[in-house]
Amino acid sequence: MTEIDDRLLEQFFQPARAQQVEDNGFTQRVMEQLPGKALCLSHWWTAFCLLLGLLLFVVFKGWEPLLVGVWSMIRMVTHVHPVPFFMTLGVLSCLALLELVHRMERMQL
């Protein structure tokens, strides 16, 4: 069914392919300007959110529940079977590594 749909779409848009619209380089100029502004705006937005997060972390004393959680995990490790614990730790480490690689690839583009 999709092959038939694809052929019908190709036939429908065939006349539009032959048509050429002259824009005197307008499209190229727009495309050259967009990424720089969007990237700059993205960096400013990231910095703003980071500062806001840090401010809220300090205002609401975010270190207290964080320390309680870490302390609970440390105490729990002594009562947990080591195999599932290390398997979970390994999976989480792999996921973190994959996310880091993905972010690095996006930064290079």
How much strand? under 5%
Q: Give the number of helices.
A: 4
Main sheet properties: none
Residue stretches low in confidence (pLDDT < 50, at least 5 long) are none
In percent, how helical is the residue content?
over 70%
Order of helix and strand elements from N to C terminus: HHHH
Structural class: mainly alpha
Taken from the alpha-carbon principal axes, the silhouette is elongated
Overall pLDDT metric: 83
Task: Give the quaternary arrangement of the chains.
Answer: single chain
Radius of gyration: 26 Å
Quantity of strands, as a count: 0
The rounded distance between the terminal residues' Cα atoms is: 37 Å
Reconstruct the topology from this structure:
Elements: H1 2-18, H2 26-59, H3 63-77, H4 82-108
Short structural description:
By secondary structure, the chain is mainly alpha-helical. The chain has four helices and no strands. The model has no long low-confidence stretch (mean pLDDT 83).
What does it look like?
With 109 residues, this protein is mostly helical. The protein has helices at residues 2-18, 26-59, 63-77, 82-108. The longest helix is centred in the middle third of the chain and has 34 residues, at 26-59. The chain is elongated and about 70 Å long. The mean pLDDT is 83.
Structural descriptors:
single chain; 109 residues; mainly alpha
